[in-house]
Amino acid sequence: MMRLILFSAFILWTSLASAQKFMTEEGKAVFLSEAPLSSFEGESDYLAGLIDLEQNLLDFYLDLNTLETGIGLRDRHMRENYLETEEFPFAEFTGKLDDVPSLEMNQQMPVKAIGKFKIHGVEREIEVNGFLTWVSEDEINLEASFEVLLSDYEIPLPKLVFYELAENQKVTLTANLKKTQ
């Protein structure tokens, strides 16, 4: 019985080690704007991404036209006047893990990624802190967060009080990534 358990564990470990590319097209991105007179969230369930543990490569992108705040007029103004999604439709992060973790089943491992974040036509190097969890033989879970200063990316702040927007946006990403062949 012990041999069977050890053999099964070995098979699981080698299957993760041999195919270390994981992808998603259904991750979630949420931004939180906490201004003094107005707080709101925007979210999208269309975060796409890749984690390649063997090559130490991370690449995530989001079609900004899929962000929704719950108010259609605010969404339209956000896309047209501030994010300018006709010209700059995507936000993207490409980077590497500071240290590639040794993942164990159902154990959440802290990770730090360093790379380039691009939005509104401006690219800057950032650090993103998060967690990776190996949840099944062919799936890992990502949770990450970072902050975006709108002025760093030349995104103007609304002038109208009822559209008050914080300069600092808190961004949270969550995704289940499936192993690829």
Automatic annotation (TrEMBL):
Keyword Signal found: yes
Pfam families: YceI
Record organism: Algoriphagus sediminis
InterPro entries referenced in this protein's UniProt entry, alphabetically: Lipid/polyisoprenoid-bd_YceI, TTHA0802/YceI-like_sf
Lipid/polyisoprenoid-binding YceI-like domain location: 40-174
PANTHER family in UniProt: PROTEIN YCEI
Keywords: Signal
Signal sequence, start to end: 1-19
Protein known as: YceI family protein
